[in-house]
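Practice record 12: protein with adenosine-5'-diphosphate.
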Amino acid sequence: MTKKHVGLYPGTFDPVTKGHMDIITRGCRVVDKLVIAVARNDRKGPLFSTEARVSMVLHDTAPLRDKGFEIEVLPFDNLLVNFAREVGAGVILRGLRAVSDFEYEFQMAGMNARLDAEIETVFLMASEKQQFISSRFVKEIGYLGGDIASFVSPATKLKLEEKFKIMRKSKD
Ligand code: ADP
């Protein structure tokens, strides 16, 4: 039997956007199984709990699983290369947006390669239409009442609106 190629796509996914989904769809085409690792990332002060972020990613990836792609969504809060080994991933997938992502991603890939030379980092580019989307701006635009329908799924949009309602109420 040939070995299954497992890819790990880590991120904060606070919340998952159409940009992430573009990378996930491409990722499914290059590995046999994709593990989406949702970072606890408490230091970044995420808007959604880890459980809520996992559940949103699970929801948005259901159509891909229905198409037969093998996708697992797991929370993690340990060292990325250790988590990659735990799930049997030989490759870490990351998305590259503009030049602004490059320096951080370049450093992270280099450091991870030092920590485990067996694990390769592969960068994927989202389509032109989704490249500029970032979770941070989706949150800012949404909070200020802008239309975020083209950046996230309808289910995620609802979750964001619920959060904003609570946030606005607690401000009053
Ligand atoms: P992190 O905190 O690890 O940066 P994110 O959820 O912001 O987590 O991003 C996870 C990965 O997805 C990163 O590699 C990021 O560059 C990539 N990514 C996010 N949005 C997009 C997008 N619109 N197009 C391409 N890649 C993206």
